[in-house]
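Quick one, tokens below. Sequence please?
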């Protein structure tokens, strides 16, 4: 083959590498909202692109296969060309490394990824037939299935959660965040509404242990405290509710409302009659579950514990305020 033919084949392979590399970014940057609207309105190639992207995991595997094939073949073509020109295989391999590394990095990675990052909604539908074609070829030959099986196998060996419900929930949350961001960009949601909705999407993964106040920082009062001891506490801290302990901080009886207690006209030397029971929540309880449990019991404060039911340890305190602020963000009460 002539040098011109080698260069022509190389250019085609680099373009294919750029297509696959950019498409990988496009899969994640493409607006699902615009894709769905375009498919419903029967816009050109939107329906085909929507069907192609039904299994995103398999499509990404096809893109990765195509990208590696294109880059590998491009490197082989340059190697053959340089072997003919230089005559030394070792020298040709060195030149290939020096030439192809920057060429592929710039023209098959950086430039296409940047273009797709900002123009995915415009480019992806136009190139949907080509993406569908290669995806079908790699699926039909079994390459996608093989890589999918190997991926699950290595994932299990590493003990990492894979597929199934966990992956579906993660992908669902990712799509929800994308839709919320796009709706905000359209001017439908205010920044505050957008922030709250993002928090609502994320809150199922947040546990009580992540939002509680650690036990070491909790201000507690001894059940044997009298009026004078409570007055000293009130002078130093501004809380209204205080956990009450007996025989050590790991044995919490409940809590007192310090203002309610001090309003009592009778003198007292212990807090037993003022103590309100409060629920106990495992540290791995989700924020939503904790809010539901505390609302059903009409409680505003709860103990957070670790360990099993027979031998639990108090690790912190959580209030309804802490839980609500995971959704609304911090605000003054």
């Amino acid at each position: 083959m002539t040098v011109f033919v080698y260069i022509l084949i190389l250019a085609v392979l680099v373009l294919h590498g750029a297509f696959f590399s950019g498409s990988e970014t496009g899969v994640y940057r493409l607006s699902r909202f615009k894709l769905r609207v375009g498919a419903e309105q029967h816009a050109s190639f939107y329906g085909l692109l929507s069907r192609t992207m039904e299994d995103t995991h398999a499509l990404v595997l096809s893109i990765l296969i195509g990208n590696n094939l294109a880059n590998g073949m491009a490197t082989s073509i340059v190697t053959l060309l340089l072997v003919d020109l230089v005559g030394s295989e070792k020298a040709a391999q060195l030149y290939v490394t020096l030439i192809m590394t920057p060429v592929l990095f710039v023209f098959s990675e950086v430039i296409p990824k940047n273009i797709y990052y900002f123009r995915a909604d415009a480019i992806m539908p136009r190139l949907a037939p080509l993406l569908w074609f290669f995806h079908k070829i790699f699926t039909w030959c079994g390459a996608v299935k093989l890589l999918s099986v190997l991926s699950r196998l290595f994932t299990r060996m590493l003990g990492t959660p894979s597929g199934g419900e966990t992956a579906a929930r993660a992908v669902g949350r990712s799509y929800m965040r994308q839709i919320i961001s796009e709706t905000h960009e359209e001017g439908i949601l205010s920044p505050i509404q957008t922030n709250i909705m993002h928090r609502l999407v994320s809150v199922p993964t947040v546990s009580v242990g992540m939002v509680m106040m650690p036990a070491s920082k909790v201000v507690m009062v001894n059940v044997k405290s009298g009026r004078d001891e409570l007055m000293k506490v009130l002078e130093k801290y501004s809380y209204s509710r205080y956990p009450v302990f007996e025989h050590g901080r790991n044995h919490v009886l409940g809590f007192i409302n310090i203002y309610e207690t001090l309003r009592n006209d009778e003198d007292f030397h212990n807090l037993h009659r003022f103590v309100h029971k409060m629920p106990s929540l495992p540290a791995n309880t989700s924020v939503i579950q904790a809010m539901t449990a505390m609302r059903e019991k009409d409680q505003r404060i709860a103990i957070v514990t670790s360990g099993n039911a027979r031998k639990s340890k108090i690790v912190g305190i959580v209030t309804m305020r802490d839980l609500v602020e995971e959704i609304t963000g911090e605000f003054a009460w």
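The two ends are 78 Å apart (CA to CA). Residues 208-328 form a domain with the CBS-domain fold (CATH 3.10.580.10).
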